[in-house]
Hints:
Elements: H1 13-21, H2 28-46, H3 50-56, H4 64-70, H5 80-83, E1 97-100, E2 110-113, H6 115-133, E3 147-151, H7 158-169, E4 173-175, H8 178-181, H9 186-200, E5 204-207, H10 209-225, H11 236-252, H12 258-261, E6 266-270, H13 274-285, E7 290-295, E8 299-304, E9 311-313, E10 318-324, E11 348-355, E12 364-374, E13 383-389, E14 393-396, E15 399-402, H14 403-413, E16 417-425, E17 428-435, H15 441-456, E18 470-474, H16 479-489, H17 506-512, E19 519-521
Parallel strand pairs: 3-4, 3-5, 5-6, 6-7, 17-18
Antiparallel strand pairs: 1-2, 7-8, 8-9, 10-11, 11-12, 12-13, 14-15, 16-17, 18-19
Helix pairs in contact: 6-7, 10-13, 14-15
Amino acid sequence: MLPRESLIHWRDRKTLWRKYCGFLDLSIQEFMAIQRELLLEQMELVSGGILARKIMSDAKPGSIEEFRSLVPMTTYDDYRPYLEEQREDVLAETPVCWVHTSGRDSEFKWVPYTLRAYQRLIDSLVSALVLASATRKGEVRLRKRPRIMFHLPKRPYLAGQFAFGLSQRIACQPIPPIETFERMSPDERQEEEMAMVKRHGVDFIFSLPGNLAEMGALFAERLNQDGSIPFSPLSPRRNLQMIRTKLAAKLRDKPLRPHHWCRPQGIICIGADSHFSRDDIHYFWGQRPYDIYLATETGCLALPAWGGADMTFTPFSGFLEFIPEEEWTKTSGPPDTLLLNELEAGKRYEMVVTSFYGMPFLRYRLGDIIKVNTSGYRDSLPQIVFEARSNDIITHGPLELSEKKLWQALLNSGLRCQDWFVVSDHAGLELYLELKGELGWEMEQLVAGAKTLITAGNGKLGREDSGSHLRVNILPRGTFRRYYEEAQAAGLDPTCTKPVHINPPDSLVRRLIPGHGVEKIRVS
Length: 524
């Protein structure tokens, strides 16, 4: 159990801000001092663990420099034989819980959380609540027992675990109630969420971004179909507000959306694709999402400040190293790394993270690419954005594409796309799209426009070969709906069944592409 802390009892909001958001004001020197202290503590904690000793070859680094020179970089494969079986005997500290990733790479990665690491993760979520609702520095708008909707998968997904942890950490009203959260199917949870939000409103939402956009569309459809008003026996004032909202929408002949019913103070999104759903979330919920950079293996790594899009690293979740882009393809020896105080604005880096608090991961290649938008001004901290996962970048000759770039090009082209994926073969890249609506002559023009936009950012491509590296195919309608239904029937939570967009596994491609019915669109 986590210690409960009712935030409404904090009389001194400055103290609360300093405790949960003070990392935003750290200098680079202060940040690096915290990192050094926690890394040396981690070396002491894990030195008695079988798994850590195996990875470090019994080395006992006494400084950051020794640690970086003596300890090799690792991937999940180094831990898989032990963590897949949830072997606690090889760990330096007994975990308080085990969680796993979403399985986007066709397999789960199991991760043990020690009590201190779990507490740090939940405290980061409290920081997100404060910052997501703030409009200026030092502002704390959390009210007594806020209503928080957890539109998330259940445990042992990490998101389901922190729904439980946050409800233990602060006094809040979870939607749906925590005691029934795991007993419901995903569809039942969503129905309960919409019913409770209609009746009582919501202050904060935690969700995966694409799922919240889809729920917003369904919620809006229900609001416009249902002529009744969900009266609340406990709030006559809210009942009057709902009557006025309904009448105003009818007089203006405008469709109702969830934010007409209730406008949350903050929407906290977990996942790398919120920029694709950002406009839809704002349209339906009246609030732009507040993105947090969180990984199952490490916890929360970075948070935006109030009202901002760029993120600031927190020094408390793990020791941070960064592989420069010029080192990504290095073939002789391990790649060199930089520390936070050595990063340059405008450059991309791959993340390498070492756990704190007795967690198992040492110099772990997370597979995430970040871009530094602003380097530290004088001694302030760099501002970064999540760019892509390293396996979400695909190249063919001079053409380099990322999931983020492809999504943005499809959105800018005007194509109404249900979903997509791209695979590489010897002849080039094959982009498969399922479109919303019927395919007509104008759709061919849109597909051609999308193709132009996708290749436009690759300066190495000549005009004569800009289209030769990419072919576009149209999938039959219902392709992805069938995939989601099959995944749910296999027991996967539908909130975590999004297919891999870049070079999905062959098994997934065979499930998505039927033996017939793929129509190739020929564009010049």
